[in-house]
Description:
Blueprint: E1 5-12, H1 18-27, E2 34-39, H2 46-51, E3 64-67, H3 76-88, E4 96-100, H4 107-112, E5 123-133, H5 134-138, H6 146-152, H7 164-175, E6 178-182, H8 189-200, E7 208-211, H9 219-222, E8 258-265, H10 271-285, E9 289-295, E10 301-308, E11 311-319, E12 328-335, H11 340-348
Parallel strand pairs: 1-4, 1-5, 2-3, 2-4, 5-6, 6-7
Antiparallel strand pairs: 8-12, 9-10, 9-12, 10-11
Amino acid sequence: MAHKIPTTVITGFLGVGKTTLVQHLLANANGKRLALIINEFGDLGVDGDIVKGCGIEGCEDDDVLELSNGCICCTVADDFIPAMEKLINRAEPPDHIVIETSGLALPQPLVRAFNWPEIRNKVTVDGVITVVDSAAVQAGRFAHNEALIDAQRQGDESLDHETPLSELFEDQLACADMIILNKTDLLSADEAEALEARLKSGARAGVKFVRAEMGRVSPATLLGLGIGAEGDMAKRYAHHHHHESEEPHEHDHDHDDFESFQVEMGEIEDAEIFAERVKKVILDHDILRLKGFAQVKSKPMRLVVQAVGPRVEHYFDRPLMALEKGKTMLVVIGQAGMDEGAIKAALSA
């Protein structure tokens, strides 16, 4: 049998730092030929654009495939299988494939898709990596522990442990071979220890936990696990998987609980002032995730804006391209029912 190309699936909730982890992986690949499939929720290809043109040696635009405007686990036949075939049928196939899933994707159906006849003899799931925003989970925003939510987020009915957000979080933990506790620099040592102990109770036996800051985890830790996860689905329980068969099938979850839209504006006056405005809009409208790009007036560099909950990060990453000059483009992700008009007006104020 021909050698199967190992594939690492990186999953995790909105804003946990998956793209930062991938960037660090690329920057430290040491000659290994990596190919990426990036799946985003919403029309704006922010994560793919952050990786493309990053200036990292060996990171070519042709090595980055984007599957946007849809959840990868819901579009296996139309999007995922053709993308995989494009990579594995190259004259020089990659040494390793990395898939960064949307924050709203269930990992189980994606892993199960590696059993499809078109690809099952050519690729294998080296391991499933679930990235956790340690500070957010410690604060109770996406925790599945009702007592923790009641203690730390009293009165917020949307955070009940039976909500789809919490079930998705549990499914990501249940499917993982390794759990990255990212952003542990925002916690005390005792808080990080307590968080890891609590999450271990929801993970499978033997799952490895790794603590990280800014997604800095070595490729030697992430790649080469040799799990073959597609042959181990019975142990990777999912709330939304109600079938015993391992044959390809449609699954019964949707994303009607979430919605996204784009905001396009002109250049902004000041990065710090804009970040404060973004933070206020997120708090006023309970936005889950906001990300995008902006031009700051008179600055030649592109400003990247990434926010999860009220925590807003922004930094200049590279010179502006001609089509980006004078533009600010953002994507807003939240639970269904957001006031799109009010949010757009507030961001543009």
